[in-house]
User: What shape does this take?
Amino acid sequence: MSGERITRREFVKSSGRTIVAAAFLAAFAGPVVAATEPRKGKLVAACGIYCGSCPVMIGDDGANKKPGKCTGCAGKKNPCNILKCAKKNNVEVCSLCKKYPCAEIKSFHANGKPYKIMAAHNLDVIKEQGLAKWLVEQDARWRCPKCGKPVAWDAKACKKCGAALKTIDEDVVAMNLGK
Assistant: This one.
């Protein structure tokens, strides 16, 4: 132990949500979690993006003060090709498909944007440990460690309490994923 003490309230705030999320996901982790309909509990896109840290979805994109509508794969009138393919192959995410990794998903992840680089890594983790466990980890990762508010992948400080945050860019560098 590091010698740091936390209050009971801080402990419950930090671990309670994770425990509740784990219980919920264990019970309902079927098709409820795929990003096929915007804003209905869908926190993962077929390509591996975690929607729970999307600046638009959590209302942290500079223009919105409250959660917005999905503008990604699930927010379009015509879903993206990756989502169409996942539906056709009856999988939640691409890494659960027999054809993974296909040319379409490789091309999507190859553009160099940190959130897409992380999405490729996410698919590998989902394949290895399962979607439910990954979702619990993502929920914990993308919350402010001080106040528990959901935070965007590009936020450097929590908008609620001001705590310093680690961005997705820093994760990509720390995990040596961008090479």
About this structure: The chain has one domain: 8-169. Residues 35 and 45 are 5 Å apart (CA to CA). The radius of gyration is 16 Å.
